[in-house]
Fold Cro/C1-type HTH DNA-binding domain-containing protein.
Amino acid sequence: MNSNLKQILEERKIPGWKLSQLSKIPPSKISKMKNGTLAIGPKQLNQLAKALNVEETDICPRGAYSTYFPKNNLKTIRGDKSQLSLAYDTGLHPAVISQIELRKIPGNKEARKKIAKALSVKVSDIWPEDKEEE
């Protein structure tokens, strides 16, 4: 991941455990973010920026951020339809819809198919990384 977190921490000589205390992000996640093995989500990016007293773009330039967190296709495609309405149409729990939309969980193949069907689109329209079987 093209994140400047490691560089910022090295320049300021801030250990991961200290950043964890300041940002309320677990040390294991800080370590993975620093090493580029865990993508930095929007909430974590905000927490890190506040803890380090820097701009979010200082940690993760927008180009790099969008590579790991492309525009939220599910939210864009569902438009004015609420998560609750989508949950009702798919038979999935509203919390699952929310977690999938926020990319906290990927959602299994079956859930993705249900969501795409409820929105009258292909699975790959929402998740380009998925190649829908014709």
Q: What stands out?
A: The longest helix spans residues 42-52. Confidence is low (pLDDT under 50) at residues 65-71. The chain has two domains: 5-68, 73-126. DSSP finds eleven helices and no strands in the chain.
